[in-house]
What does this fold into?
Amino acid sequence: MSIAIICPNRDVSDWVVGLQRLDPALQVEVWPDIRHPEQVEFALCWNHPSGVLRRFPNLRCVSSLGAGVAHLLEDPSCPPGVPLVRLVDDALKQSMAEYVMHGVLDCSRGFARYRHQQMRAEWTVHQGPWNAELNIGVMGYGELGRYVAKKLADFGFTVAGWSRTPKPADTIPVLSGHDRLGDFLAKTNILVCLLPLTPATQGILNVKTFGHLPRGAFLINVARGGHLVDDDLLEALDTNQLSGALLDVFSEEPLPGNHPFWSHSRITITPHIASLTNPFSAVRQVVENYHRAMAGQQLRNVVDRDRGY
Amino acid sequence: MSIAIICPNRDVSDWVVGLQRLDPALQVEVWPDIRHPEQVEFALCWNHPSGVLRRFPNLRCVSSLGAGVAHLLEDPSCPPGVPLVRLVDDALKQSMAEYVMHGVLDCSRGFARYRHQQMRAEWTVHQGPWNAELNIGVMGYGELGRYVAKKLADFGFTVAGWSRTPKPADTIPVLSGHDRLGDFLAKTNILVCLLPLTPATQGILNVKTFGHLPRGAFLINVARGGHLVDDDLLEALDTNQLSGALLDVFSEEPLPGNHPFWSHSRITITPHIASLTNPFSAVRQVVENYHRAMAGQQLRNVVDRDRGY
It folds into this structure.
């Protein structure tokens, strides 16, 4: 009996350590170095090579390494009779909240300025900007957007939300619908994009949207690269309509080495790391489902293949 | 009738704007350009030149520009019959919490690494460190330390405190006394110093203290420069006992241009800006006390000159 981790191009050593720390009796093998395919009863997959699951005749459970399961549903080698489960990781929301909190503070307290001063051994105190006058706008108010907005508000920031469809009442004001977007943007000094990527939101971070923001606003995109019109961001920075941007996602990833974002002095780039699954918290679910699968018990977070999640 | 702002070597323009925005009828003058000393009835002081208050014969109130009043109590020109008030600014605590939150996230999420990668247009995802294994230790558990610890814990971090004297029970574990310092340090991955500077805490951030921390711990000093033994920090970084440090305070400020901290790759320096009084929130107290002083009413936040605060 063993668990196979099938995640090409990803360092999974923390997953191996985390699994074996939680249950030292576990046999864990990492694809492609799997010595006994017939002993693999549990497969933990992310961007696995399509068809690879055929090599494991004795699977009793296939688990996604994340919340998404599209990669498994699209693979005909994922055996229809074997239960498919996914990770439901609250740490993902927290990871996103940490990233956005850091980005908001880095902007609002002007830390980039002090980093540049340090290079010149320069000691200059800058007053403000003062957060009492700072409004954060969270675009996209699903589970993730609501969590991030609440964390920012709890910490002391003034936060508002916007979503395409109406949301239940909340302590944070949330405007909804396309006709309220302008009102929302007009009061937003730091815009955080957490929208889902759909035909309706593709390219929504464009010159017209930026034009509704107060002059000197700051953009944080942690949703998908497809939300942003790259050239419109560069133009908004050139005209000082935007003062800067923090981007974690890009239309093409990895971001090509010759893309103008890399060297722009007012764009900060991170390589899609805002929200990473934390192996040390997520392994608990894996180990629990492994033991349930071995014991023939009902599994947690089973995917309904017809609904698709 | 006028308010005189007496704060040498400090840009007080936000204070002037804030006061006049709140009460457009106010006459505000900024030392040393005070045309009518006899009209000054309210003095707002920070690091004022000793003796200067003798030039204002009609003072009805002297206010510190901050929470501290030592500079006023030590000045014999501060007229004994005139009430002395100070600012009690919750925004100071929030400003400190913001600074520490940013520093903790910058360390725990490894953002410095991504800033360096951006300079090389390098796209590499680093896993971890993961916060589930991260303990933050707040040394100094007065009003400020407690506030910062609570904000970090509310956000989701694991936090413990240490203070020299026992503190009332709290949801956050707080060890106290010198004989528990080692236990506290042994579990601390990010050490935040918020101690008062006294003979007992002078030089407390030294090689022995660092030696109790888990290898690779990170230091944030936002208390006073006198807490830190500079050479001991450099040694602890050289031996990798500490992985890095964020310093806002120094034994000599401004930090001299030739100090080795400036160019150390694992030391981040800010020019004593962790906790700045926010003029736009603090002016409300100043204007209220000004009007109370003019109307002969009881003032807010009056200093007891015998107690010293």
About this structure: The first helix of chain B runs from residue 13 to 22. Chain B has nine helices and twelve strands. Residues 192 and 280 of chain B are 28 Å apart (CA to CA). Chain B touches chain A through 51 residues (CB under 8 Å).
